[in-house]
Design a protein that fits this description.
The chain is of the alpha+beta class. The chain has a domain of 60 residues: Alpha-Beta Plaits (2-Layer Sandwich). Helix content is 20%, strand content 28%. The protein has a 4-stranded antiparallel sheet with strand order 2-3-1-6, with helices on one face. Strand 4 and strand 5 form a beta hairpin. The longest helix is centred in the middle third of the chain and has 11 residues. It is globular, with a radius of gyration of 18 Å.
Length: 98
């Protein structure tokens, strides 16, 4: 089961994140998402736990809990959609019209 973990301290390591979840069971992977340009943490990550019961126990126990001064947001990760992203730069219209 893939778990979203948000509101992380930007200096938290993937090893530290994994250790927090290992209390509740087997952790397959723990990754912190980094900014592509700077390589700095974006303050959230994902933990993969193969056993659903252990994952649900971790979510229930850790959501809202303090980790190094930050209250974590922990929930089941939503499936990623690889479709086109909205937003960004749009053309359009600027300037005066006479």
């Amino acid at each position: 089961m893939n778990i979203y973990v948000g509101n992380l301290l930007r200096t938290l390591s993937e090893t530290e994140l994994k250790e927090v979840f290992q209390v509740y069971g087997t952790v397959q992977t723990a990754s912190i998402i980094k900014d592509k340009m700077t390589g700095d943490s974006r303050g959230f990550g994902f933990v993969e736990m193969p056993n659903r019961d252990e994952a649900m126990k971790a979510i229930a126990s850790l959501n809202g809990k303090d980790l190094k001064g930050r209250n974590m947001t922990v929930n089941e990760a939503k499936p990623r959609t690889d479709g086109p992203r909205s937003g960004g730069f749009g053309g359009g219209g600027g300037g005066r019209r006479y």
